[in-house]
């Protein structure tokens, strides 16, 4: 009961502040967004830049949150919108799939016996680097291994995908990460596709009972436009590398 009262007081304070700020010229409103770290770094910058340019009176509060915490925050009305990794299990939340991204395996450049294609069996003896256990990618990667009867040899848990890349570059092991985060020039890592394939879907979530307003509609519509990026995306770096490798074999 006390928690509900506290949330109501916070919402009323926010409403009072919003009412006062409307007297300032050009202010549109406030929208609170939660997002995964990879989406914040690699998917959202063009959207946020466009919003800042076209709607300078828009007040955006963006928080980097793991998927599980974003779901809880949307469900409890502590944030308005979130970019998360599916699946989402809550009948109070509306889900809009946005972007599907393949997972790939990365290895330190120069390491011996890197497989041509990474399977759970071929990775069984490799030291495996994983995100923290609350991350959606952790559950996804573990499921990929165990579906083939393999328990990965986990040697380290790290907080972000970028930290996983750095650890791989330091020859601490291999990792499975989204293809989205692979840059055009990564001389210190080797990228391999997965068999069986594994992909994750990023989605926009919102509370079904959240009342709409002008600022909220602007941000929600801008984020929903990311759906078209999935269908129009260019080949990823690992896809291009695999194509080149296949072409060399044919020659």
Please tell me about this protein's structure.
By secondary structure, the protein is α/β, with parallel strands linked by helices. Helices cover 39% and strands 25% of the residues. The protein has nine helices and nine strands. Helix 5 links the parallel strand 5 and strand 6.
Provide the fold topology.
Elements lengths: L1 H20 L7 E7 L1 H7 L1 H10 L3 E7 L2 H9 L5 E5 L7 E16 L18 E5 L4 H11 L6 E6 L2 H9 L5 E4 L10 E4 L6 E9 L6 H11 L1 H7 L4 H14 L1
Parallel strand pairs: 1-2, 1-3, 5-6
Antiparallel strand pairs: 3-9, 4-7, 4-8, 4-9
What characteristics describe this protein?
single chain, 251 residues, alpha/beta, 9 strands, 25% strand, disordered C terminus
Strand content: 25-35%
Mean pLDDT: 87
Query: What would you call the shape?
Result: elongated
Number of helices: 9
Radius of gyration: 21 Å
Residues in helix, %: 25-40%
Assembly type? single chain
How many angstroms does the end-to-end distance come to?
71 Å
Instruction: Write the element-wise H/E pattern from the N-terminal end onward.
Output: HEHHEHEEEHEHEEEHHH
Biggest beta sheet summary: 7 strands, mixed
How many distinct beta strands?
Answer: 9
List segments where confidence is low: pLDDT < 50 over at least 5 consecutive residues: 243-251
* Alpha-beta classification: alpha/beta
């Amino acid at each position: 009961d006390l928690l509900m009262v506290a949330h109501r007081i916070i919402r009323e304070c926010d409403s009072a502040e919003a009412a006062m700020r409307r007297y300032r010229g050009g202010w549109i409103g406030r929208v609170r967004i939660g997002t995964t770290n990879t989406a914040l770094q690699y998917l959202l910058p063009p959207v946020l830049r466009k919003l800042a340019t076209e709607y300078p009176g828009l007040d955006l509060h963006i928080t980097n949150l793991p998927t599980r915490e974003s779901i809880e925050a949307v469900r409890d009305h502590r944030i308005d919108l979130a970019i998360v990794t599916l699946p989402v299990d809550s009948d109070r939340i509306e889900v809009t799939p946005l972007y599907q991204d393949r997972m790939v395996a990365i290895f330190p450049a120069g390491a011996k016996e890197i497989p041509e294609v990474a399977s759970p069996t071929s990775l069984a003896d490799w030291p495996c680097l994983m995100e923290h256990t609350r991350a959606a990618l952790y559950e996804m990667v573990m499921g990929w291994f165990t579906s083939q009867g393999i328990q990965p040899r986990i040697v380290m848990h790290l907080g972000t995908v970028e930290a996983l890349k750095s650890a791989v570059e330091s020859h601490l092991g291999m990792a499975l990460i989204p293809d989205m985060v692979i840059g055009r020039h990564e001389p210190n890592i080797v990228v391999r596709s997965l068999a069986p394939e594994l992909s994750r879907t990023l989605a926009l979530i919102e509370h079904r009972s959240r009342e709409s307003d002008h600022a909220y509609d602007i941000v929600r519509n801008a984020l929903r436009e990311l759906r078209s990026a999935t269908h129009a995306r260019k080949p990823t770096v690992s896809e291009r590398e695999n194509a080149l490798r296949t072409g060399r074999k044919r020659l």
